[in-house]
Protein 1
Amino acid sequence: MKMIQNYLDSLESYLPDEMKQDVRDELEASIMDQVEDSQEALGRELNTEETEALLLKLGHPMRVASSYLPKQQLVGPEFFPAYKKALEIALTITFVVIVLISVFGLLSGQSIFDSFINIIADVVNKGIYVFAIVTIVFYVMEYCDTNLNHLYAWSPKDLKSKSKRLALSRVETGFELVVTIIFMAWWNDILTWPAEALIELQPVKVSLSAEWQSVFWSVNVVLGLSVALAAYNFVMASWSRFSLAAEIILSVASLVIISQIWRFEQLLIVDPALNEDIRWERVADHVDYGIYSILAIIAVICVFEIISNFRKIRSI
Amino acid sequence: MTDSEHYKKLKLELRRGVIILAVLAELQEEHYSYSLRKTLMAKGMDIDEGTLYPLVRRLEKQGLLESEWREESNRKKRFYQLSEVGKSTLKQLIEDWQQVETTLNNILK
């Protein structure tokens, strides 16, 4: 009987105060009735093994106690779809912010390896906090029996087209985001790389001409808006009318800037080296043709994107 | 999950629906928890204590049962019986069950 009392003591410990005595009395009566029935059938008292078997059949005290308690889940099936979506969005935003902060660390001199380790550590650390906060919010909503109608309110007319043409790869938008930030950092002299070209095995210093100053701020505006749009696209992972229209405007602005650059009299300044055998004017022309080619390719890409994005808008 | 595990899970889900009806039907007469379990077992429905006792408390909380504590054989026992709401609910559930049974028999032909 000591074993039975120990079982009941253990079971009580898992119950709230207001239920302890009630549940204990009820289960004790049931267990003792089962013991009496078994003893009557056997014609003797139960031994330790038989009592143990009876209690094992009943189940672990914690499990038996939990069956008396309401709401055995953190987030139930009714709230789970909204909870899952909220978690996806929150963790995605956390990841993007951590990567952006790490890129700035990289630009200020931190090594790539250190930045990578920091990203992993931060994602895990902050991710756990975000997970806990979102879970607690939804647990409280379910505990308070929050009405979900506004959360799940919908109309067939409001459903957006989810065709494959409108899906956006997060890998591509993430890459675009990082590349644009790095280019913006170079443009604003936060990040520099060797401005030397190797011409006929001679290192030659190459720099942008003063005319580029006339497009400095317009390029910054386009780059800044591109970063913001890439971040938005990364989170949404799907084109919308807004994002497509914004892309078209940015492509048009890029074409305007390219046309301005095209009219520069001099694109780059090549510092002549000591070797006077090399004809530096021809070298400068070749470098300029290279830049014009890159600008032409960018212009063609912009035109292609404008047409493609117009088509996407019409299909939404 | 093996086939027999799938089958056991599905069988459990099938029983879940009828356990409440069986318990309410049996509690048209007064029982305490253990005697209720013994009676249901004798009639072919084996329900473990971990399922039956919390269920009975839940049904009481929902107003379908009434209970009172009495001392029997030097032990405190809680006796349950259908309330008035429980009786009308049972009547409706029996009608629903009979409809379900007819429908299912048609499908299983």
Note: The mean pLDDT of chain A is 83.
Protein 2
Amino acid sequence: MSKLIFELSSVGRRCSELPPLDVELVQIDEALTRQSAPSIPEVAEVDLVRHYMELSRQAFGVDNGFYPLGSCTMKYNPKINEETSSLAGFAHIHPLQPESTVSGALRSMEELSSALCEVTGMDAFTLQPSAGAHGEFTGLLLIHAYHQHRNDLKRTKVLVPDSAHGTNPASAAMAGYSVISVPSNDKGGVDVEALKSVLNDEVAALMLTNPNTLGLFDPNILEISRLVHEAGGLVYYDGANLNAIMGIARPGDMGFDVVHLNLHKTFSTPHGGGGPGSGPVGVKSCLVPFLPKGTLHPTEKKLTVSSEFPIGRMRSFYGNFLTNIRALTYILSLGAEGLKEASENAVLNANYMMAKLSDLYPVAYVSPCMHEFVVSCQKLKDETGITAKDVSKALLDYGIHPPTMYFPNIVHEALMIEPTETESKETLDRAIEVLREIHALAYTNPQVLLDAPTTMPIKRVDDVLAARHPILKYTPEEAQ
Amino acid sequence: MASYVVNTKEQREKMLAEAGINEKSFYASIPQDVMLQRPLNLPKGKSELEVLRHMKHLANQNTVYDVVLRGAGSESHFIPAVVRQLSGREEFVTAYTPYQAELSQGILQSIFEYQSSICAITGMDACNASVYDGASAVAEAVNMTSDRKRTIALIPKSVNPETLETVKTYTQWLPITLKEVEIKDGKVDVESLKSLLSTETACLVLQQPNFFGILEDVEGLAKLAHEAGAKVIVSANPMTLGVLKTPREQGADIAVGEAQPLGLPMSFGGPYLGYMATTTDMVRRLPGRIVGQTLDLDGKRAFVLTLQAREQHIRREKASSSICSNQAHCALTAGMYLAAMGPQGLKDVATQCTSKAHYLFKQLSTLGFKLRYDSSFFHEFVTDGPLPSFKVEEVLSNHGILSGLPLDDTGILWCVTETSTKDDLDRVVAILKEVLA
């Protein structure tokens, strides 16, 4: 257990100091000023450094080891991305500088937008959305504006498959839609008959992840998008899984009208412990008039020109610009061939792991997978009591980040494994070996797994206590 | 061409053979009509040296100003080297959301410390792990306050226009009505506010200091809103809180804001950091991730993502927001910045900003620039002057100085921070004086 930085604090200790004030001191009216200093830490520079170094040792990034966290595409984040995004000409420019003084920044946005258009088969992009869920919300507002503009006011529903990310229905609700869940068929794809039965003139859109959260490409995709279009709806592409199909197939060619991408997944920008990400949204031409303010205008190449009927603005300025610089750097590095090679290897690595594990860890829907696959630990649980969570916690002791657990919801005791293309055969072989060993231990010595992890700074945590008795900030009394 | 694929062609073939799998079958479920029959029309991949050259070329086409006197939601502040260096640790940069608490105590603790420091400067009880930026934080806060009976949000014209637009965008299809409160002398018009407050008012949004840099009478306005049973959302520049009363002391039920001034470069607008803090009774309405303290099985202190029953992955369409990621790395940086500055350092930054802003105004006034609004300001202020605003921008730009933001033909919104010296400010005045002569 590390001390909190507040517990290292000592009154009067200083780290960073400003030069002396070189103009006359101006005091703010006393009625508006605080009477006591805020109790933020008072530490020396070396205290600060050692504290955060200790915290960094208790964190695990893709630079530390294998991170097959399904749906999150934890691929290696090239160092060049960090170098280009910290160039002063990008990092130290003000968002409201005259446009003539930021032509390189605008050019970078244009280059990224057009590359993303080509990869996805869309007509235009906005780089403003800051993450996947933000992109979904943006896309649904675009769809809402589209129907509204056509005076097609009856459409109040958005269809979401039962295998979808939780952000899909939540974003639909924020955009003012009620959500209808569409069941999956026995192959893990959209149940087309069930889809037909809910399609009508009240449906605004279908949201789809393809490949879906089971790692499967829906073979009926063209029929699905045709059916939705025939009913007057639009088709939304959740790009969380684009890493499977770059240079192989494009959402724009599958009939999708709007897509969001997760640059922090597919395009190698680091996740930063939870963000910042970037969730650009691409659209077919019918949605261009509704793009948010702060989007680089597709033809005028200006930020100040607004689209015809903008949905508004999703946040201040133009999005997570430096994250976008990283993604552009990555695309320039890999080029057309490299992006395709990345996808092919992501798919190969996933199929390799699946083939070597599926005898012990049954795959939920048997089929070659795309870039990830979902296994069920239900049988293991039934026979040994060892759950997907126990398997995950055991992996920690082997220095492997666990897969995504208990998602998608339609698979019991799910583990979703996404190795990505940047892992070697050796790494995959070791993970396979470890998972097989854990499986064996479940039958021979399950207690070892129930006690895991034992090599971490802490044992398993009490989630229930955290929620029942929330301690959400440091106070001297609560610190034990 | 750069490639981050590790396995050689031979290894890939070995993998296929060992696993008894066939590469063609992987794509069998993709209809032929959908398979891309040509290479992507993108440039060939480049070596690292070529990419760096290209990106440097783009970066060099942007002007990096020596002196920045522009704010309006993005400010140039000093960032200590220790913050830049430490926040770049790869374990922080390349980690995912800390789902696995045992392996992620460092990330979780850094967020818990960030939450604690934000609570300390705002006076609030609880804070989330951050949202995308200050504008979306205000929008999320408005969503937190509405219910079936109270559906009207009041927003004065003195908040940042991009914030107002973002709130409008977020709430356009929700059962929330926005009403704009008029301003007088650059701050909230009390009479306008009074006429709009009703039993249907969900919240009043106030920005402190406001878009024009002016200090609003938040306490007085909050009192009126509370008397009407409405919640008060204060969007406060966290840098100013080294000196100003906490939003809590001023009457906030929810404190939010743009935390870019806390150690994040201007970055052409992002990534930034929206902070959100509130009172204990409203914690369960907060959107996004929250880190809490708990115990491990041995009874040791531990940190974990908590109160997840609010969130999209559990509640789906009934969640408080669809937000999934946060700006964790920006939050880590801001937490680090606050610890590096400490209470005295934060106070010094705020004091220097306000002192230098007043100095610049005083010097500009000798040239005939006048305050547009006769109200006291913090470190931003609006002038109307003897020169067209775009002329001021152009002339100063030619000298490596980014002027205040032209608001219209004569109005300029200036922002002065600790990064400008007296000499810099004197130079601004000398340059403008020459133009006027």
Note: DSSP finds 15 helices and ten strands in chain A.
Protein 3
Amino acid sequence: MRNRDTLALAAGALRVQSRRTLLIVLATAIGVAAVLLLTALGDGARHYVIDEFSSLGTRLIVIIPGRNETVGGPPPLLGETPRSLTLADAAAAARHPLIGRVAPVMIGEAPVSTPSGLEREVMILGSTNEIIGLRHLELAQGRGLPAIPPDRAAPACVLGDKLKRELFGTGPALGSWVRIGDRRFRVVGLFAPVGTSLGDNLDDLAIIPVASAQQIFDREALFRILTEPRGTVDIDAAAEALKQVIAARHEGEQDVTVITQDSVLKTFDRILTVLTLAVAGISAISLFVAGILVMNVMLVAVAQRRAEIGLLKALGATLADIRNLFLLEAVLLCLGGGAAGTIVGYGGTLLVRVLYPKFPAAVPAWGLAAGLATAFVAGLVFGVGPARRAARLDPVEALAKR
Amino acid sequence: MAGDASDLIALAGVSRVFDLGGQQVRAVDGVDLGIGRGEYVSIMGPSGSGKSTLLNLIALLDRPTSGRYALDGQDVTALSDDALADLRRHAIGFVFQFFHLVPRLTAAENVELPMTLAGIAPAERKPRVAAALDAFGLADRANHRPQELSGGQRQRVAIARATVMRPLLVLADEPTGNLDSASGAQVVELLETLWREQGVTLLVVTHDRDLGARARRRIRIVDGRIAEDTGPAHA
């Protein structure tokens, strides 16, 4: 039998039972659409997180005091930090040829008050002006911290957007004096609102020179050092250089943890990819449910068309002819569902993008391939049984019954 | 009488045993039969006599439990399913009591079906279908579906389908069993014309005495054995 004739006969049989065909196509379409939509959402989430991280600068390298094998955990507490990070460490890092900008960071809470008597406990970040570039912060008004050596204190501060509004309302803040702890600082700059970025509320803090922070908190040790490779230097090479620089200053001991933003990003990328795959896998189960439906429908079709099968055999159809006819019907059903599901899936993705423009939902190529392949395989796998049953029918019995 | 090599159909000691719930039923019991090319044979017998089973064996739809069957000189008892399908396609045409037209296909498509199964090119199929429909007075019914046709028209479509592959042998199983007498007579006339003018071998299974009596050679089956055979007519 010619392939085109097999196709025409199979398609004709489906057309006659249009309602049943529609139902099966619908079931398969829902499965395929689910796979596409969920992979689009999962992949969108992955892109969203990666974009967020990238906005921080993927070349950021963070030095944390204390040896810490796992990335991202808190530094060890009492007694486990043999040597603290110091401004001298930061200066040594800045002198290394592979290293670009360096910002020592010190963090604490202190009461901040205005001349008008408003007072709040606020997160105080002691650093240098380099932190603005390293963390991609933007100034709305004024300038950054004064360009002075890191070990010199200066009575200057830059306020986050929320803190400024709470202390000064809508009035002018630039040039005013605020009291932080027991010292007075002049407001030299205001940050543009940025919102929450990875847990730090950058709108609700004040940045002051690191030496001033050391005085207020009466502490030498740094919270961490932020840095980046110089120019196009490889991140891992720069991170390795930093480890050696600090180790050399700490009597050869590796007592700091160096985290590259890049490695954090890759970890997130991996986790979200696996999550997307898992979600896609779960939605593919619905395709197998549709496949079982296809099998049921095909078994009914074989039972109802016994006489036709018997006739085809009497007219000289081979086992393969009959099997191919019924298998093709099942596959056509699933492919029809796949096509309809693709339209619905892409439509849904488009809708998500219209409703949430910031969320980069898009069906990845592998999602489309996986959805259609699963539909096709479901048609084959669940169509084989009924098709073989049809092919094996005894023509004498099949023709005998009316 | 046993068949010999020159016969179209040659059965030798053919039996077909069914196992019905542990009980062995010999539906066809050691039949020897030879039917030559161009014969017109009727097979008659009461219900359950085994005549349908014998027809199914001759039609290659069923295999004998024992005995040998040669069709056109070729031993078919040992052939594979696909080889049998190929023989059915090219050598045998069927006419059934219940027509067995595919309801979703038009008259023309039903007639075309054997050629479709045989893998004949569409360009060759179309004129042959048109010629067949024309020959059986169905040209104006080509695009009608079976449910839009009368019983007689349906059986004519079935005969057109049975003969479009130009088979050696046409097997008709109660061809008039589901028709009124006028349509039945017309159908019989058509079948006999095929036998007379195109030289096909015509084998009719029936329990209609009048129809059976028209055949040149009449075989009666009782309890799976040939009870009476008028023998080939040497006219």
Note: The CA atoms of residues 35 and 132 of chain B lie 27 Å apart.
